[in-house]
Amino acid sequence: MQVSRNLARAAAYLAAAAIGAGGCSRSAAPPLTVEEAAGYLTDETRLARLDTPSARLISSYDRTGGNDDFGNFVGPGPEGWAVLADLKGPGYVSRFWTTGEENGRHPVRFYFDGERSPRLETTLDDLCGVTTPLTPLAAYEPWCWYTFAPLLFDRRLVIMTRHQPRRPEAQMKLYYQVCAVPAEPGRRAETYGRESAERRERALAAARAALARGPSDAPGVGDVALTNRATAAAGGAAELLCAAGPALIRRLAVRPDVSGIASAAERERLMRALVLRIFWNDAAEPSVETPFGDFFGSVWRPRQYGAFYFGMSNGCYYARFPMPFERAARIEVRNDSAQPVPLTVECLLQPLAGWTNAWGYLHAGWRKSGPADVGKPHVILQTAGRGKYVGCLLTATSLDRSWWLLEGDESIRVDGEPTPGWRGTGLEDYFNAGWYYGRALARPFHGVPFKAHFRTVQYRIHQMDPVGFQRAVEVQMERGPNHASRGWFESVAFYYLAEPARADSALGDAAWRQPPEDPVAAATIMTELNDLEALGDYRGAVEWIDSFLERQPASPYEAVLRLRRLRYRAREEGFAAARAEAEAFAAATTNALARRQAEDWLWYESSSSNALLGVYCNMRSAVFLDGRYVGEGGDPQRLQVYRVTLTPGRHALAVKARDRPYPRWVQVCLQTHGGTFYTSPEWKFAYNPAGGWEAADGDDAAWHTVGGPELGKGPPEEPYVWLEPHAYVDMQARARGIWVTEGEFDASGMVVFRTAFETRF
Question: Residue 480: CB partners within 8 Å, gap ≥ 6?
Answer without folding.
Answer: 404, 405, 406, 407, 408, 487
